[in-house]
Amino acid sequence: MGRLRRFYYDVFSNFYDLIIDLHASDRSAALRRFLVDSSGIKPGDQVLDICTGTGSVALMAGEAVEGHGGQVVALDFSHGMLKKARRKRVAKGRENVHLVQADVSRMPFADKRFDCVTCSHAMYELTETARKKGLAEIRRVLKNHGSFVMMEHEIPEKPVVRFLYHVRLTTMGSRKNRSFATDERTELRSYFSDVIKIPSPTGRSKLLSAKTKNADAATSQK
């Protein structure tokens, strides 16, 4: 990631939680709880939360996997975001959540390391190249029969908000992100199986759930 992009997110970390809460109507964090509950993670699982931002989902996941050695790795390329996440982790005493600064397109983890990978309101802001590399990396680090659960914004209905949404898609990601955001399932099926879409309780976000393809199926599609 470029230095300017990293600097932007370091600054944006000061407003990130407020923006997500307002746009997704999630002031009570019920939407993030919905993501964690829908992931099916359980005590003892190993979870990776990518583009973790200020760590809200990672900390909830840490609570869900607590016991039997359950651990959560919260990954983000922004030092500012991780600084906010670290404060939250200390405040909650969540010792089984570990913060890692790295790029999703080059994750420093062994193959088949995690039971589940989560991502909240971030995938559409990656460039097309970074997103595709990131999806390949997610598939690599997931265990057999592991799951990938991501949440994204629905396209806003109000014209002005929809315009600003598309501007952000284009400026932070790429023009091709508009087609990805319209129906993520098409691209996800290139990397995963059992891809399903579930509306969120607020109606302003959507949940995408997928499973890792077995080795034989992946090989046959090449």
Short recap of the structure:
With 222 residues, the chain is α/β, with parallel strands linked by helices.
Describe the protein's topology.
Elements: H1 3-12, H2 16-24, H3 30-39, E1 46-50, H4 56-65, E2 71-76, H5 79-92, E3 97-101, E4 114-120, H6 128-141, E5 142-153, H7 159-173, H8 177-182, H9 185-188, E6 192-199, E7 205-212, H10 215-220
Parallel strand pairs: 1-2, 1-4, 2-3, 4-5
Antiparallel strand pairs: 5-7, 6-7
Helix pairs in contact: 3-4
Q: What's the story with the biggest beta sheet?
A: 7 strands, mixed
- The share of residues in helices is 40-55%
Oligomer: single chain
Number of strands: 7
Describe the protein's architecture and organization.
The chain is of the alpha/beta class. The protein has helices spanning 3-12, 16-24, 30-39, 56-65, 79-92, 128-141, 159-173, 177-182, 185-188, 215-220, and strands at 46-50, 71-76, 97-101, 114-120, 142-153, 192-199, 205-212. It has a 7-stranded mixed sheet. Helix 3 crosses helix 4 (56-65). It is globular and about 50 Å long. The model is unreliable at 215-222 (pLDDT under 50).
